[in-house]
Design a protein that fits this description.
homodimer, 2 domains, 3-stranded antiparallel beta sheet, 13 helices, 12 strands, Aminotransferase_I/II_large (chains A, B), pyridoxal phosphate binding (chains A, B)
Chain lengths: ~375, ~375
């Protein structure tokens, strides 16, 4: 009795996963987190209309969802002033990035990203045999011109850029991105991850024709719309490219409760604005707590704040461990020098109280452990 | 401005999709279906406990689901008397079959299936560059020994078998499958699609050790559990193979409302048994209606019935068109001679009344159109 035979590419892949979920950490610790501020979830939750729509749809779950997602695509097209043919809906940005890589990256094809940017994108590129070229951050910003120069140098199929950036929270103006696009080499696509764009200042998204074939914009209901557990992301791009995803996507992959919730969430601008306001208060609260502890923070156009712990990665990792020990779920950048920071999602006042309590102890412990 | 460049494999793929959803047909017709009996959905719906669990979870949708799916895997392991390490949870059997093909099939690798079996499996095989070898049905059953003989002949990576079969509803005994496994060539995996197995007679699933490396069993909450729109399937197999999926799966792909619903559904055996009873009544009702119209039906171990229209595929397609015209959503096999049948999902009494009304008219219209 033998088992399966894996192709060479699959055999070469590590079995590591992009992220460990907080639930596994909770099981390992034997206790629940007191504050869940590590995955940039939106603690303020979805629109009450979205909750009601999902509850109403629960009994209809015996039906498959419409695989063409006509209703949600029509609403998004209206929202974004494009056509439904410019929109693809899929299983979160994670799933959509996987489809993008499968669609464009053959074995050995070059892909460019920032060193320390979204690991799940890298996971997909490696998983389809692509070759990653990583550009360091410059001043805690993704380096737009260096990314594009590298793309030209290595004949890349894709350049990945998150704007605003995760994990740093920094951002470029939409005008800077539009200008950079004009220097993008032929045959390269900019994968513009706008997961956090609803939190960003006006003008952060480039003013582009949806039919522009050089860019695909990735958006989500996971962040500002408070529906991370629903798994609804979407891509905005040229109709011909969007149609190409039909060759490979899991057509019946969407949950119909989630689709109903997203439709309702999209319609509730009032709640969205309230979430954006509460998130800004949450960011301010994190900055205050950091300052009270002698730390600085980076400006952020997202629902999280990078708190600069003022020393190296080992020190920040010790602070992070101290917070987790005290029941505060947070994460941090993987790569130096960005790993001098820990990344804290904007919380409610009650979450931030727990953080305010825990941070000085975590800092003290880290200083005691790591001082000579 | 140029657009994306596709690898040769992707460029070669057709943009056709495995299935058109009834919603698109409804838009084309300008009216809703009166009876939804085409996608083998479970019209009796999910357990009321599952509905309640999903409604309770709606407000928690701001959190990502646990990517290791610990709770549902533990419950399934308990249910199936294996370990959680023998279980993989994913975005429906469709999504899981995609992962399987990606995991095992390199470009040019051989895969064996039945001619007329599940098109979405074929879609994945073609999509990853595999080469499909198709074995005709024998007496409306998938031909187990011919499938395995072909696998040996072409050095297949995967043999696909749905038991019970879709679209015919026929089945093999678990003992026959276990015996066939002993003849499976080394390095070939049996992908055993048991989507409908809860409806089948006792003994339809082979009595195998979960650690048997030769077979992966695919199951779902879409059929007997009435949660097609939730997108929860699972694979049961050897721990080492299950772990290999971690190299490629969309770790954060699952909807947390759906996971909560599945957990509750799994616990409600009473509802499951009631659904199985109602489904058997529905099958009997379809058989009666067929008989009243001079047609025969195939025995079925599923929640649908293949109704033999008694002539060729063109005739059955005309009958199908006549049913759809009258607002009855049904589908049919794609390949001769199985395409002499139409496939009707077990409905409630009110669904079957609509069918009973529509079928004679559809038959009459088809006879008028197609008779010389």
């Amino acid at each position: 009795m033998t088992g399966p035979r894996y192709p060479a590419l699959i055999a070469s892949l590590p079995s590591t996963v992009p992220f460990v979920g907080p639930e596994l950490q909770e099981r390992a610790r034997g206790m629940r987190f007191q504050a869940r501020l590590g995955a940039n979830e939106n603690v303020f939750g979805p629109s009450p209309f979205a909750v009601a729509a999902m509850q109403d749809e629960a009994a209809e779950i015996w039906k498959y969802a419409d695989p063409s997602h006509l209703d949600l695509k029509a609403a998004l097209a209206d929202h974004l002033r494009c056509t439904p043919q410019n929109i693809l809906i899929g299983e979160g940005i994670d799933g959509l990035l996987g489809y993008l890589v499968r669609l464009l990256v053959g074995q050995g094809d070059a892909v460019v990203t920032s060193d320390g940017a979204y690991p799940t994108f890298n996971y997909h590129v490696t998983g389809f045999g692509g070759v990653l070229h990583k550009i360091p951050y410059t001043g805690d910003h993704e380096d737009l011109s260096a990314l594009i120069a590298k793309a030209a140098e290595v004949d890349a199929k894709i350049v990945y850029l998150a704007n605003p950036d995760n994990p740093m929270g920094t951002w470029h103006s939409g005008a800077a991105i539009a200008a950079a696009l004009d220097t993008l080499p032929d045959g390269c696509v900019l994968a513009l991850d706008e997961a956090y764009v609803e939190f960003a200042p006006e003008g952060t998204t480039p003013d582009l024709d949806a039919e522009d074939p050089r860019v695909l914009r990735f958006r989500t209901f996971s962040k500002a719309y408070g529906m991370a557990g629903a798994r609804i992301g979407y891509v905005v791009g040229a109709a011909e490219t969007i149609k190409a995803f039909d060759r490979i996507r899991n057509h019946f992959g969407m949950n119909r409760i989630a689709l109903a919730g997203a439709l309702a969430a999209l319609g509730d601008t009032e709640w969205l604005n309230e979430v954006i306001r509460l998130t800004a208060e949450g960011r301010d609260g994190i900055a205050r707590i950091a300052k009270d502890n002698g730390l600085t923070t980076l400006p952020s156009a997202t629902n999280f704040v990078a708190v600069d712990c003022g020393r190296d990665g080992d020190f920040a990792r010790a602070v992070l461990a101290g917070l987790i020990d005290q029941g505060v779920f947070v994460r941090m950048p993987f790569v130096a020098p960005q790993d001098r920071c820990i990344r804290i999602s904007a919380g409610r006042p009650e979450d931030l109280e727990i953080l305010a309590e825990a941070l000085p102890k975590a800092l003290l412990a880290a200083r005691i452990t790591l001082n000579p």
